[in-house]
Structures are given as structure tokens and as C-alpha cells.
Amino acid sequence: MFGMPTDAMTPTGFDPSMFMLSGYLLGLLGGMNLxxxxxxxxxxxVFFVVLFTVEQVARVTANATxxxxxxxxxxxxxxxxxSPLRTSLTYIALFVLTLVLxxxxxxxxxxxxxxxxxxxxxxxxxxHKTIIPSQMPRSHYEDFxxxxxxxxxxxxxxxxxxxxxxxxxxxxxxxPISKRPDSNxxxxxIEPKKILTMMDGLDNLTGKEKSDLDAAVAEMERNPQxxxxxxxxxxxxxxxxxxTIKVTGLNYNDLVFDLTIIGELPDGKYDNIxxxxxxxxxxxxxxxxxxxxxxxxxxxxxxxxxxINLIWVRLPNKEAFERLASAVNDTGNFSNPQIKLETASxxxxxxxxxxxxxLFGMKYLMAPAMVAIMCLVIANxxxxxxxxxxxxxxxxxxxxxxxxxxxxxVVGEAVLVGLMAGFMSTLIAFKxxxxxxxxxAFFGAFFVPVEVLVYGPMLGAFxxxxxxxxxxxxxxxxxxxxxxxxxx
Amino acid sequence: xxxALVQVRDLHKSFTRGTERIDVLRDLTLDVGAAEFLALMGxxxxxxxxxxxxxxxxxxxxxxxxxxxxxVISEMSESELARWRTRHVGFIFQFYYLLPVLxxxxxxxxxxxxxxxxxxxxxxxxxxALDLVGLxxxxxxxxxxxxxxxxxxxxxxxxxxxxxxxxxxxEPTGDLDTKSAxxxxxxxxxxxAQLGKTIIMVTHDPKAxxxxxxxxxxxxxxxxxxxxxx
Lengths: 488, 230
What we know:
The structure holds 2 protein chains of 2 kinds.
Chain A (H helix, E strand, L loop, with lengths): L16 H26 L1 H22 L2 H15 L1 H32 L4 E9 L9 H12 L14 E10 L10 E7 L2 H6 L8 H16 L3 E5 H7 L6 E6 L6 E10 L8 E4 H14 L18 E8 H12 L9 E5 H10 L2 H33 L1 H9 L4 H31 L18 H25 L3 H8 L1
Chain B lengths: L5 E12 L2 E13 L4 E5 L6 H8 L7 E6 L2 E2 L5 H11 E4 L11 H6 L9 H14 L15 H13 L5 E5 L7 H18 L2 E5 L3 H4 L4 E6 L2 E7 L2
Helix pairs in contact in B: 4-5, 5-6
């Protein structure tokens, strides 16, 4: 895998992978923090507007009820406006922390969802046993269907053919001379009707989106040279529905596809991906064998034996999976190449195996380290404030305020900032980043779980409390006589 | 003879600075009568502020006994002292020490928040206090919007809003011009004469001390002179 060391890099036996892992982690952390700092700075005016608004609510409540805790809360709000610079820096620090940790949490939840094994009606995936990317001949797909037919009743796919799908990955360019990345077309070549029955992430389409997709699939069935592209890709390549494009294969050398754009994929679904009828790919491969002038010995195209990348099947239960897996693993059934069957989640889990150290680092090193660092940052900021307001706190004690009131004031100010920073950062994560609907391969759109709207403020409040506790204890223990003696 | 409001017996206070022990007050005994205006004078380091702090319940003596009214404050815990101070002692500081983020009204109201009063009762007491010091029309102003003399008057209003029997003042006119200082001292006289407050004031200013009924001189932690005003 790119970036990971091979034996060739370690002739002396020295393993640089830990340094590379550290580099990846630091780079990831630095990038995320930078974005979070920018967002935090941009939301500062909103923060102060919210602070002012909530303070007015507190003022009205305090004046209306005359309730002591309400007056204390009002005093906390006024205290925050006393030093806008310090309050801003505390806010940004907590904003960065809660935003970054919310994103890490979202990534881990997403991975968790994808790798969670389902008990019934789950997808299994057949791939090359050892090579990534997987490549198999067309015959394997037919043989796979035969094995499915041999399964006992109750173990076969409930919807028959509709529950089986093969993918062929096609990468081509509309500009074969300069081969610029922005003229690339990446497509899944599949049986069109399987788009509706087997592709993930198409369950929540609007009425119009569904009917448009149905029409596109019908047209792809009728016209094998039809292509359905994502809106994002069409916009980037300045293409429109109805246009004809000539796409030269990059992974299928010497193959040229004449395609007509007959539809677009719904927003946020499979961005930068297109769908082509696999029949057209196979037809082009067969035509190359016959028509290619360079092919004097009528050999098959080099990719002919590798044109199936993945085979998907939806199975009704685990027993069906185990039976089918046993059949697939039998070299008498599938050889040259040998293939393996995994559940989709375990397949992804295997893919993630190479990244497990990074994920471990994110979860157990990066996140706690960030929390600890931010606690120290908050503690420093609050300490400075407490030192500056030492006399004020002494006056409060003189007037009869108990030490716990002083403690509550200091911690309360920090918690107010923590709650607001936590809420605003997670709201941005949820509304902005979550709504980008970033498609992650074929696992659906990346999302930010709604529970971050609760966890974020809680995390902000927790870090505020943890960071402000020691300065608050110092404030609580201010010796009145000493303070005034120093002042005198 | 009427019992004194403040009774100090064999008071001793020392501090430790590193390995050195410093005796600030030594075997001090004094009585302060109810509704008396007492000035404490002496050179720097004589212990007058320390004595004031001890009588006001801001600190605990090393040994000795201090009684204010029925309460032996030298035997109270910190939280008991805090509760006692709210009801029984008002403080006037040299530098006013108003909370800058609160209005004059809110500053005066602060001590009342700790008492079981209704909102209306608090409002009545605050407006009465501000009225007495002549700052009703400035009640919604923040300290930054008030002059030094006005801030000190707010400080006085805050000191008397809980109707304490004892008011302590540490150099109340130290940061004021002559005119403002005179107004403040007049107010303090009114508090004593009309409201029966006992006032103990630390001052370096002989003119301020001359407004008091009695002046105590301290030197090296001991009482050296006790003069009544003529």
C-alpha cells in the first residue's frame, strides 16, 4: 500500500513505519486543527452575538425573579465580556477541540457502522484471494451464479438474479493526448437494473430522483452505450445530458467507448462516479479481439481475464454465507484465480487492517492528548483571569460570599464558554460537513451522527471544568487579609 | 456603663514569612462603644489595618478574643464569619472596589443577595441606601461612568445596605480630593449620628481623624495613645 514500507526499504532491518505513522498522524492532526481554527475564528462574531443575547435573557430573568443563582449567572456573562481577547482565545481553543473530536468520533462511527455484521439480508462480496484491486474473469461471475443456484432452499438469494451483481471498474479519459485528471471518467460497469436493487445509498431518494433514475436505468438497458454520470463530475467536465463523449480507456488500453450521457445521479450519491452498462464493456473487449489491427494472433484483450473486479450477493442468513463461502473457497470451483467470499463489513474490515494503527492512534492517543492539552490551555487562561481578579474575589468574600460561590463563579464562566463553543462547533460539523454528503467509495455518504450535538457541548463543558478547577480552587482559597495587605 | 459593641481582649496577631515570625499586634485590649466613631492612626506597619481586619472578621487572631455584639468572632469558622459579616459589618475601602461589570444598583445589591429577602425588599433597601448617599439618579451607571467621590458613595451605600451595626473603613478618603473627602466624612457622621452605626476608620489623615470622636494611635502593634476628640 502506498506510503507503507516494504522489505526493500529496510535492508538493514530498521523499520521506519512508526515514524511514517507519526508523520501521517501529525499531518492529519495539523490539517484538521488548521481548518478548525479558521472556522473558530470565523464564528467568533456569532459567538459574541449569542453571548450577548443569552446575557440579555439572563438579565431579564435575574431582574424578574430576583433569584440569587440567576444573578450569579448574569455576573458570569458580564465577566466573559470583560476581556474579549481572552474569552475569544478560550472559545477558539474549545471550538477546535470539540470540532476535531466530533469529526474523529464521526469517522469512527462511520467505520463502526460499515464493519458491523448484520444477521440477515446482508451483502457478501467475492474478490481475488490475494490481490488488491481484485480482478477475475467473466466466467467466475457465471460460475458464482451456478454455485448460488446449488444452495438449498432458504439459503438462496430471496430475489434471485436481482440480488447478485458484478462490478467492473473502468477508468478512461476524454483527452487521450494530455490525459489531464479533470478529463477522467471513472465508472462502475454493471448490469443496469442492479443499480436499483443492489447499490447502497439509494433508499432515500425523492420522488423525482427515483423516477429519473428509473428512467435512466431503462434507457441504459435499451442502449448499452448510455452513461449515467454524477452531477459533480458533469459540472467539472462541463458536460450535459444528451451529449456524446468519446472515452479512451486508461485501464483498458486500446478500448474507446462512444457514450451518450442519458442521465445524472442524484445529488450526493456516488459523486465523481458514473455507471455504464457492463454489456458494452464486454462487447468492446470481444470486438478488440477481432478488430484490433495490432492483434494478429486473435488473442483476447489483456484485461479480458481480469474484467470483473467484485461480485456482490445479498444473502438471507449467515448459514447461506457459510455454505457459499465454503463453495467459493473450493479450488475445484474457482481457480485461476482463486477467490474468497467475505461479508461486506468484514471485507472493509480487512481493507482497514492496514490502517488499524492509524485508527488506534486517532482513538487512543490523539483524542486524549487533545483533551489534555486543551485542559492545560483553559487552565492557563483561567489562571490569568483569576490572578487579575484576585482583589475582586476578595471583595466578594468580604461581602459575605462563601468560597463555594467564588469557585462556582470561576468554573461557571469557563463552562459557559465551553458549552457554547461545543455547541457551535458541533452544529457546524453537523450542518455543514455532514450535509456535504461525501461519498466514501461504495459505503454511502459520510455523515455526522446527530448525537454529536449533545456530546460536543458536554465535551466542551467537561474540558472547561477540568481546566478551570485548579484556578477556581485558588480563587476560592483567596486570603482576604493578605490581598488587601498587598494592595495597601 | 453601657456594654461596648466591640470588645478586644489580649489580642495577638503574628505572621510567618519564611522562617521569620513577625508580631503585628501584641497584647492589645480595647473597647469600642455602640454608635462610636473611632479613628485608628499610626505609621505604616503599626498594625492598624490588621486590627481593622480582625475586628471586621476578615482574619483570625493568633491569640486573644474579639467580640462584636453578642458574637465571639474570634472563635468562628471561615464560613460562619462570612455569614456574620454579611449581616453585621459594612466595609468601605480606600479604592472603593466596586465590581466594574455591575451597575451602581447591582453593586449595592450584592450583599443583599445573600440574605433571605424578596426582590421587592431588596429593591427598597438598595434605593434607600442610594438615596441616602444622593446617587439615586446614577443607579444604572457602571463604576467607570462615576467619579471617584461618587464611587466611594456607592461603596458607602453598599456598606450600609444590610443595616449592619458596625462599619469599618480603611482609608476611605485616601484616594479622594479634599471636597469629595469632606463629603464622605460628612456621610459617615450622618451614619453614626442618625442611624446609630459604630464606625471604625483607619486613616493617615489627621483632618479625617479629627472628625472621629476618639482616636487610637498604634505603634509596633501596641496601643500607645487613646485620645478623645474635643
